[in-house]
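Data deposition worksheet. Section B asks for the primary sequence of the deposited chain exactly as it was used as input, without tags or linkers unless they were present during the calculation. Section C holds the resulting structure in token form. Section D is free text for depositor observations; keep each observation to a single sentence. Incomplete worksheets are returned to the depositor.
Section A, Depositor: J.P.
Section B:
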Amino acid sequence: MRIITTWQGLKSDDRGASAALGNFDGVHLGHQSVIDLARRPGVPLGVVTFEPHPRQFFSRDAQEFRLTNAETRANRLAAVGVERIYQLPFDAAMASLSPTAFVNDVLVHGLGLSHVAVGPDFCFGKDRAGTAADLKVLCADQNLPVTIAPVLAAGGKRVSSTLIREALAEGRPREAARLLGHPHTIDGEVLGGDRRGRELGYPTANMSIAGLFPPKFGIYAVRVSVLTGQYKGDYIGAASIGVRPMFGVNTPNLETFIFDFSGDLYGEHLSVSLVEYLRPEAKFDDLDSLVRQMDADCAQARELLQAR
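Section C:
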């Protein structure tokens, strides 16, 4: 998979893809249905998306809403067979393009796409003035075929990032996974911590969740993929998402204890998948009480993950 971060001056090898257009936050089942419609035999499968998310560009102080950062999104897109990600910078210049200019300058002359697929609610161009129907008309003028995906529903409800956020906020990762088509994952670099977990016998891999929609704070059974370094591979474990009230920490983060693992993961990249919510985070009277609860959490997580 190639990640291409410009639409200008592309080599011929990077042009000609059949691409799905959108933000693809979460790469849920609805997004995957659009990507499936972009598949063409013998033609590279691409996705045209934006970074930062346009909503972040226009509302810099908005609450965290993203289900995936750029790294997680790229990993999920690769997992469904996308060969090229056109991760275009969303800046003032991009935001000011009219629908016609976006089609002509970016999709046709810039990326040289051979086919485009979008969701039924796709909007584009300055002030989101262009609709999916407009895209089809404008692209027809440039001999660029467009496929508009139908609405995808699951359990009688339209699959959406909003429904997935609701499930995560309520501590229902299995429901989120049903809508996503895969477990909700958080990918990122392992950061240095205060090593309190190591002192308690539970060394954890600490990752930032800054900029991401926070799932319900608490303890989760998780599956972990180490993506880089000498320990690359798949593991199981237990993770805490929250502010560590026992230690007065205010910045939410993700701390993962990997079962039966010994090694230094600082600086490596992990993908942590939420499987089951075990309990809310809590403040304990003393460290011994905390360790006893951690013992119980890990035993429960191990049993659950091994049973599945």
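Section D:
The CA atoms of residues 115 and 144 lie 6 Å apart.
The radius of gyration is 21 Å.
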